[in-house]
Amino acid sequence: MSLEQTEDLKAFERRLTEVITQLHPVAVRCRVLLVIVASSTVAGAWNWLTDPETIRVSFMQSLYNHPFFAASCVVLFVLFLAGIHKRVVAPSIIASRCRLVLSDYNMSCDDTGKLILKPRPTT
Q1: Three-state SS across the chain?
Q2: Rounded CA separation 123/106 (Å)
Q3: Which residues, including other chains, have CB under 8 Å from residue 30's CB and lie 6 or more apart?
Q4: What is the pTM of this model?
């Protein structure tokens, strides 16, 4: 392997590591936000379902009686429409797609973006 190829691989590895590193804090924040909103929705759903008044009134009235549940459902729906589920797994998607491309060149990468050189196949 020439010096130029080695430098190119090092530059690629640095950039890949940088991209995955920059995506990681966003993914963690999105995970925390998703867990909080999902937990709020579950807690609101429990209150909504265990309320004896819920079966006596209309659906819209029962949602009006439980604004915490209704609001948390709306927030959860908006978060999914905004693509939070993609942001949560973005670093692993980038790494897996790079592994797929790098496999053609007998290389791989770990979850942090570090390159893994595989031995050349014997023919």
Answers
A1: CCHHHHHHHHHHHHHHHHHHHHHHHHHHHHHHHHHHHHHHHHHHHHHHHHCHHHHCCCHHHHHHHCHHHHHHHHHHHHHHHCCHHHHHCHHHHHHHHHHHHHHHHCEEECCCCCEEECCCCCC
A2: 14
A3: 84, 87, 88
A4: 0.76
Residue 4's identity, in one-letter code, is E
**Residue keyed to tokens 């439980």:** 66
CA distances from 81 to 31, 68, 77, 84, 103 (A): 15, 20, 6, 8, 34
**Per-residue pLDDT reduced to its tens digit, 35-58:** 999 999 999 999 999 999 988 999
Q: Which of 76, 74, 71 is closest to 36 using CA atoms? A: 76
